Every structure is written in C-alpha cells, then in structure tokens.
C-alpha cells in the first residue's frame, strides 16, 4: 500500500540506514529533524557516528535535485525534507519552541500525495502517544527489532516414547529427522511421555542430524552447573568448536560467573587454545571518553568494571590451584602474566583479537551496529561470549527487542558456529531471586 512515512530524529540516530527501509514510500523528514541531527554530530560515541552517517546519506541524495521538491530513492519512492521556508501551523497544545512539537506540526501539515495514509515512525513512546492524540498513526521502527514471541530460547522440550531415554544413555546419541525443526547446537530436553520426571539432556548437531548426550560438566575453579540453563551454557562455553556464545537471563542467574569460570579455566590450561581471556563491558554511553575521572586507566574503569572484579575475586578465592611459584593466583598476577585483560569497549574499534576468550558483559546495552563492530574484531581461534539481560537496559536508544544482544541471538540461531542459552533461575541468593521476580 502506498503511504507517506515520516521519520523522527531518534530513528536516524538509532539506524541511519532506516532511510532505505521503506521502498516505494513518500518519505518525509521534517526540517527540525535535520537540525537535531546536527546537534549530535560532534562526538565519538555511536550516536554521533550515526548522526554523521545520516547527514552524509541525505546529502548524497540532495545531489540528485531539490529535497524540498523531492528526490527519487534507489529502491523507489521519494524523499522530501519538509518545513523549510514554510509557515508551520501549530495546533492547540503544540509549541514552536519544542522540537518534538515542531516535528509533529510539520508531519500533520504536510499534504500526502493522492490522499495516501501517513505513518509516523519514532522510537519515542511519548511521541507516539502525542501523534495518536492528534490523529496521526504512529509506530516504532521495526526493521531490526526481534519479535518477543520469536526470540530464540536456546533449548527445546521433546516428549519421547518409553525406552528412548534408556537407548539415549546407552548409545550417547539419537538420530533425528531432518525436519525436526531444531537449530544447530540447540539444547534439547528429552522427556519420557509416560514418566515425566524421567529426562535426559542433549545437544543437536545437524550434520548428521543427531542428538548427542549432554553429560554433567564442570567449568573448573569449583564451579558446577546448578540448573537446566546453566548445564547448556557451560557446555557451549567449553566447546571449542562453538565460536560465538550468547547468554541471556535476569540478574543473579550466573551468566557472568559461568563465562568467567569457563574462560579462566581454559586459559590456565597448558593445552589451551586461547592465549588470554579478555573481559569487557560497555562504559555507557559507549565511546565516552574517560578523562573526566581522576587517576590511571584502572582507576577510571573501577566503577564500571566492579561487577567483573567481584566475580573474579569469588572465583580466585575458591581456587585450589596455585601459581607457578606456589603462590595463590590473584587478578593482578593474572593480568601481569598476560593471561587476563580487562578493557573498556570504548577502545575495541580497530583491534584484531586472535586466540582470545573474549567476554562482553551487559551486551544488552549495545546497538546492533556496535555488536557487529565487536564480533568482527574476532581473529582466528577466538571465542566471543555475549552476556546480558534484555529486560534491563540503560541505553535510551534500544529496548528489549532492538538491542544488540537480542539481535545477535535472532540472527545467529541457524549458524553452526554459535549457540545460545537462556538462564531463568536465579542462583545468587534467595533474596536476589525474589527481588528479580517480584520487583
């Protein structure tokens, strides 16, 4: 259906390529949006980079003709910058001194060709409410959003006839139908159809189409899985053939602790495929300079990396292994030996990371573009682990469905090099579990 699509500033700041997501549409950008983008161009963060890219793309289209008259888009449709040199009429309740109101007023005033319906695209919930109040249909930008009902959980429950589970334990595998609908490296819970309490865990491999028995594994450092999600997570973390692991779950489910334990135990192994473990998390907002904090780089990173240090301290305090000189290992000694590196994501752009066990904590605060930048840093032999809680987001430019972690989980679900586990049961403490559930 032909329509007029109006883009809000936050859509272009979230994804500059959104300009080309509406082929055949009469695409409208209010002049106020151009002015707002200009305010964001100066900076080193992802939003500033997106602002510059949006300006560059609009400028390239401008070279084809007049933006006020409309220029043709590559995949059909027309782009117009509206409101420049026009007298804008503000309906009752909208003020010319408020940028959002200017955008809405221009959108309401613009005459859609041939009476086509208008659709206002914005990431701002309040703007959608205001647009609806003035009779303008509004929605969020869906191009990179993952439908919550379709978000990959990482494991599947299958009921099987009596006797199958005994065969599974005896052989260590079960051949599956090609049309089973399972994804590569997906966890499977086999449940006896008659005795529901009888179960077995497996991991699906698609070449050949076979379910392999998942035995209880230990991460080392005294860490063992305590629930279903942790069993699958630990298996994926220890499997060298899996190069990308995503772990999602609410606070206290053990995502970070399991990733650190699995990484550290492998790095300390004499036959380890990894040279070091690199641990990072967004210093939000990503790309923000750290110079305003006093002290050395470690001092500046302290408040941001405290959860990482807490987990490392818990792991190292519980270790029975000793260092080469018979002294107990500490985080400082690991870093001095080169086995451990703690670094902000602000400095990851441009690096190449071969043979690293690379953990990115709080990945739900990344945009899809940022997470692409991170994963493309992986060199030969590197394993990338993304952990986070899609329901606990600090970045105002993403939500539970459009953040980088959810985006990777959805896009990599059919890849043989990746695996995902959802951790739902809190193990930090009874109090923490109740708080996550009730508050």
Instruction: Catalogue the unreliable spans.
Output: 285-290, 320-327
User: How many domains in all?
Assistant: 3
Fourth-tier CATH superfamily name of the largest domain: P-loop containing nucleotide triphosphate hydrolases
Instruction: Give the name of the CATH architecture of the largest domain.
Output: 3-Layer(aba) Sandwich
Give the termini distance in whole angstroms. Answer: 44 Å
Q: Tell me the fraction of residues in β-strands, as a range.
A: 15-25%
Gyration radius (Cα, Å) is 26 Å
Secondary-structure element string:
EHEHHEEHEHEEHEEEEHEHEHHEEHEHEH
Envelope shape: globular
> Largest sheet at a glance?
6 strands, mixed
Q: What is the overall pLDDT average?
A: 86
CATH fold-level assignment of the largest domain: Rossmann fold
> What structural category characterises the helix and strand content?
alpha/beta
CATH top level assignment of the largest domain: Alpha Beta
Give the helix tally. 13
Describe this structure in words.
A six-stranded mixed β-sheet has the order 3-4-2-1-5-6. 31% of the residues lie in helices and 18% in strands. α11 links the parallel β15 (356-360) and β16 (383-388). Residues 285-290 and 320-327 have low confidence and may be disordered. The protein is of the alpha/beta class. It is built from 13 helices and 17 strands.
């Amino acid at each position: 259906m032909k329509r007029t699509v109006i883009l809000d500033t936050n859509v272009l700041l979230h994804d500059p390529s959104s300009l080309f997501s509406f082929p055949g549409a009469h695409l409208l950008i209010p002049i106020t949006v151009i002015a707002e983008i200009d305010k964001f161009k100066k900076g080193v963060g992802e939003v500033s980079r997106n602002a510059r890219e949006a300006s560059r793309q609009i400028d390239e289209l401008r070279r084809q003709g007049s933006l006020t008259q409309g220029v043709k888009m590559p995949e059909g449709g027309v782009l117009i910058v509206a409101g420049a040199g026009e007298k804008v009429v503000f309906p009752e309740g909208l003020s010319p001194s408020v940028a959002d109101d200017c955008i809405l007023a221009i959108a309401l005033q613009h005459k859609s060709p041939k009476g086509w319906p208008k659709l206002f695209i914005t990431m701002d919930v309040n703007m959608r409410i205001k647009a609806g109040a003035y009779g303008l249909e509004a929605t969020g930008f869906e191009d990179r959003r993952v439908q919550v009902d379709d978000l990959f959980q990482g494991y599947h429950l299958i009921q099987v006839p009596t006797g199958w589970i005994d065969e599974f334990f005896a052989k260590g595998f079960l051949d599956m139908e090609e049309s089973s609908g399972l994804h590569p490296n997906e966890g499977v819970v086999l449940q006896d159809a008659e005795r529901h309490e009888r179960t077995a865990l497996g991991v699906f491999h698609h070449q050949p189409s076979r379910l392999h028995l998942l035995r209880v594994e230990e991460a080392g450092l005294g860490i063992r899985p305590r629930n279903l999600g942790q069993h699958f997570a630990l298996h994926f973390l220890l499997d060298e053939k899996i190069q990308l692991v995503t772990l999602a779950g609410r606070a206290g489910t053990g995502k970070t602790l399991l990733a650190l334990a699995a990484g550290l135990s492998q790095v300390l192994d004499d036959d380890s495929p990894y040279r070091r473990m690199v641990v990072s998390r967004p210093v939000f907002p990503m790309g923000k300079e750290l110079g305003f904090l006093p002290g050395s780089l470690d001092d500046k990173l302290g408040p941001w990396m405290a959860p990482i240090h807490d987990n490392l301290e818990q792991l190292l305090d519980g270790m029975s292994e000793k260092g080469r000189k018979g002294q107990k290992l500490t985080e400082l000694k690991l870093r001095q030996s080169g086995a451990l590196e703690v670094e902000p994501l602000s400095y990851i752009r441009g690096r190449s990371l071969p043979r690293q066990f690379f953990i990115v904590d709080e990945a739900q605060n990344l945009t899809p573009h940022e997470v692409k930048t991170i994963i493309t840093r992986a060199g030969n032999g590197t394993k990338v682990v993304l952990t986070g809680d899609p329901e606990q987001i600090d970045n105002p430019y993403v939500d539970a469905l459009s953040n980088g972690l959810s985006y990777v989980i959805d896009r990599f679900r059919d890849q043989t090099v990746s695996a995902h586990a959802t951790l739902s049961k809190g193990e930090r403490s009874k109090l923490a579990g109740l708080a996550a559930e009730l508050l």
